[in-house]
Amino acid sequence: MSEMPSAEQPEVKKEDVIAAFKKFVDRGITSPDSLDLNDPEVIEANRLLDSWWEKEEKSVPEGDKIANHVRTMIMVDAGFSDSNYLLDVLDWLNQDLENAEETDLETADKIREAIARVRALLPKE
C-alpha cells in the first residue's frame, strides 16, 4: 500500500534555520544546551534544522561524505556564544578536520576557517 502524496513542504534554507535559533540568542540564551526541548518554539527550530539537514545530506553525491562542520556551525552562526559550548564546538571541528585532512582537502580548508571563526569568538586569555 503506497502512501498518499502529501503537500510539498516549502524548502528550508540555512538562513531559516539560523533565524529560528537566533531568536533564542536575542532573548539572552548563550548556549543551545540551555534550550527547553519541550518549548514549542524549540521543537519547531529543531524540526527546521532536521529538515534542512536531511535535504543537505540528499544533495551530496553517493559515496561523498558530507561535512558535519556545516551543521555544527549553525548554532555558532545563530550567535550562541557560551565559552564552554564554543570549546565543545572546537573539539567537534577538530575531529572533523582530522577526518577531512586524509580525504578532502577542500573540506579541511573550510573546517580550518570555521575553527578560526570560533576561536575569534572565545575570550582572550
Describe this entry's structure for a reader.
The chain has 125 residues and is mainly alpha-helical. It is built from 5 helices and no strands. Helix 1 packs antiparallel against helix 2. The protein is flat and about 40 Å long. The N terminus is likely disordered.
Please give a quick description of this structure.
This protein is mainly alpha-helical and 125 residues long. The protein has helices at residues 14-26, 40-58, 68-78, 83-103, 105-121.
Radius of gyration: 16 Å
Give the overall average pLDDT: 87
Basic shape: flat
How many helices? The count is 5
Q: End-to-end span in angstroms?
A: 62 Å
Largest sheet: none
Order of helices and strands: HHHHH
Percent range for helical residues?
55-70%
Number of strands: 0
Describe the SSE topology:
Layout: H1 14-26, H2 40-58, H3 68-78, H4 83-103, H5 105-121
Helix pairs in contact: 1-2, 1-3, 3-4, 4-5
Key phrases:
125 residues, mainly alpha, flat, disordered N terminus
